[in-house]
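User: quick one, fold this
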Amino acid sequence: MIQKTKIVVMGLKGLPVFGGATTVGDNIIEQLKDKYDSLYVPLQIQGD
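Assistant:
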């Protein structure tokens, strides 16, 4: 079995998507999911 390259997706505010950059990030994750193992790390900002 060939091992997939691992990537980390950081900085999106949250999934499911609600617009803008999160939609782009979700589309990128969807397109790369078969080629790479991915880990999603949400960004939490104080005051959100």
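User: anything notable?
Assistant: Helices lie at 20-32.
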